[in-house]
Design brief:
Layout: E1 3-8, H1 12-15, E2 22-30, E3 33-36, H2 41-52, H3 57-62, E4 64-66, E5 76-82, H4 89-105, E6 110-114, H5 115-119, H6 125-139, E7 168-173, H7 179-204, H8 212-223, E8 229-233, H9 235-240, H10 244-250, E9 258-265, E10 274-278, E11 280-284, H11 304-318, E12 324-334, E13 345-348, E14 354-357, H12 364-377, E15 382-387, H13 391-397, E16 402-405, H14 409-422, E17 426-429, H15 433-438, E18 446-447, H16 456-465, E19 474-478, H17 503-512
Parallel strand pairs: 1-7, 2-5, 2-6, 6-7, 10-12, 10-15, 11-12, 14-18, 15-19, 16-17
Antiparallel strand pairs: 2-3, 4-5, 8-9, 9-12, 13-14, 16-19
The site of one zinc ion has 5 residues, from β11.
């Protein structure tokens, strides 16, 4: 783990001599002029020379690494340009990832960041420190537990950087910056990034090594040392509790399902909890309505909704937020074994509604229906669910946005506010009575696929809505497009692999209920 800490800039000569290899200086654009904040005259000269030598501001935006720049006790200087478009915390996250990657490619184990130059224009230095820390630690994530040889190949690794370990990043603070606030920001950023990276690992681990039983065990292990209580139901209990959807989907598989409950009480018992529900499909073959073999291996990521709910609640517990939350993760495989659901089969959900399964590949909604009914029984303040639910959402929004479905105007506004803070891209999508109509059943109350073509993400959301008790505010997040392989858009996410989508937004949402 990379050490991130604060140091007073004025003390740097005495304190950190010979310890830091690279000084990172931010260069701001002021019209045609540039200004390197907190820099010495020597660096200003280096900058002028670099610009005179034909480098432009757009080169600076990518970062210019000056090796052996001769700046006092630093071996190298990294100039990073911030233009007028650099304005919010998501930009901080991305610039942090860029700096981390430049440290790797330039084999710099340690760096000192001139923090004054970074916080210019921001009101809250704690938040900037938090976002920067998140950016670095999220960018440093790697899933290589199953490589027996750690490769040193230059072409290898995500982000095209050679395999090189960065040890430390120091925020160099001027006397006027409150060190305690910055340290708090670092701590919060570390917790969030750690939890996102934990969820990513759950997502990246393949189906044979991350069964429902193992997923539940991982949640229990991770909760140790926190105030989080984890309860796990086995197949018998799931049956006894009349979770007909979760049980039905699991029957085609040789491994048993689990229902994972995570409870955290950070507020008075009387305060209604915020519920999070996540789809934990450890592998989705499609079942009898089997998927094409092309890219089927990606369906190990079908547990990301559940994995990310686990990560979000873990983060909420570790941040000690003053709020009560409950997480529900129904978890199973969807396989075409002898007892598998057959098209036409009818299942009975926890709330008594009957569902005809006309396509066994539309299984996510079947396991979520029981979890949403059960969550409703707890009379929560609100329910949020996350699921890699539909290919239709990927068609609509690609890997650019998570689709969000709710009819509740108040929580829609809260979601926009939370997403603005988290920096995650969320797009509000339609859900209305027409879509509910499309899901009405022929031989049962509901059908698990729409009777009409198109709008597959909305009809899926309308189906889920039938299991949320009226009066309880609810929003559904379809992360099918954003849960994995988003590195082409977000430089702090792996090019290939789980992203941890929606965890940061869920944490921000939870704060709005504190
Ligand atoms: N897990 C899939 C959704 C999915 C597909 C996510 C591709 C990411 C990429 C889900 O269980 C599923 O297969 N849904 C079907 C529903 C359809 C049969 C109504 C789909 O989207 O094709
Ligand atoms: Zn499916
Ligand atoms: Zn699925």
């Amino acid at each position: 783990m990379i050490q991130i800490q604060t140091k007073l800039q004025a003390k740097r000569i005495a304190d950190i001599k010979d310890k830091i290899s690279t000084l990172v200086v931010f260069v701001h654009k002021k019209g045609k002029k540039t200004e390197a904040m907190g820099a010495t005259a020597h660096i200003a000269d280096l900058l002028d020379n670099a610009l005179v030598e034909g480098m432009s501001f757009s080169d600076l935006k990518k970062g210019i690494f000056l090796r052996g720049a001769g700046e006092a006790q630093f071996n190298n200087v990294l100039l990073v340009g911030l233009d007028e478009k650099f304005k919010d915390l998501e930009d901080v996250r991305r610039i942090a990832a860029t700096i981390y990657q430049l440290m790797k490619t330039n084999k710099s184990r340690s760096s000192g960041i001139v923090f004054d130059g970074l916080i210019k224009g921001f009101k809250n230095s704690t938040e900037v420190a938090r976002a920067f820390t998140e950016g670095v630690l999220l960018a440093a994530y790697k899933f290589d537990s199953y490589k027996t040889k750690k490769t040193k190949d230059k072409k290898d690794t995500e982000n095209n950087a050679p395999d090189f370990k960065v040890d430390s990043i120091d925020f160099l603070l001027s006397a006027k910056t409150k060190q305690a606030g910055v340290s708090d920001g670092i701590k919060a950023g570390q917790i969030i990034a750690e939890c996102v990276n934990f969820s990513r690992k759950l997502g990246d681990t393949p189906g044979n090594l991350m069964t429902p039983e193992i997923l539940a065990h991982e949640a229990q292990e991770a909760a140790k040392g926190t105030k989080l209580k984890v309860t796990v139901w086995n197949k018998e209990k799931i049956k006894k509790e009349r979770f007909g959807g979760l049980l039905g989907v699991s029957l085609g598989s040789a491994v048993d399902p689990r229902f994972i409950i995570l409870e955290y009480n950070g507020a008075a018992k009387s305060k209604k909890p915020v519920c999070f529900v996540g789809k934990g499909l450890t592998f989705d073959s499609g079942g009898i309505s089997i998927k094409p073999s092309n890219s089927m291996e990606e369906m190990k990521f079908d547990k990301c909704g559940g994995a990310n709910v686990i990560g979000a609640i873990l983060a909420i517990a570790k941040l000690k937020l003053k709020i009560n939350v409950i997480g529900y993760v129904p978890s199973t495989e969807n396989m075409p074994g002898p007892l598998a659901n057959k098209p036409g089969d009818i299942l009975v959900a926890r709330n008594g509604k009957t569902v005809e399964v006309d396509n066994t590949d539309a299984e996510g909604r079947l396991i979520l229906m029981d979890a949403l009914s059960y969550a409703s029984e707890q009379k929560p303040a609100v329910i949020f669910d996350a699921a890699t639910l539909t290919g239709a959402c990927v068609v609509a929004l690609g890997n650019s946005y998570t689709g969000c479905f709710t009819r509740d105007k108040k929580i829609r506004q809260k979601i926009s506010q939370a997403a603005e803070k988290s920096g995650e891209a969320v797009w509000h999508m339609p859900i209305n009575d027409n879509f509910v109509e499309d899901m009405k059943g022929t031989y049962a109350d509901l059908n698990n696929i729409s009777s009409f073509k198109g709008a597959g993400a909305s009809t899926a959301a309308a189906f889920l809505e039938q299991f949320v008790e009226k009066g309880i505010p609810w929003a559904h997040f379809d992360i099918a497009g954003t849960a994995w392989h988003v590195g082409n858009r977000l430089n702090y996410c792996p090019k290939k692999g789980a992203s941890g989508a929606i965890i940061r937004t869920f944490v921000e949402l939870a704060k709005l209920y504190a």
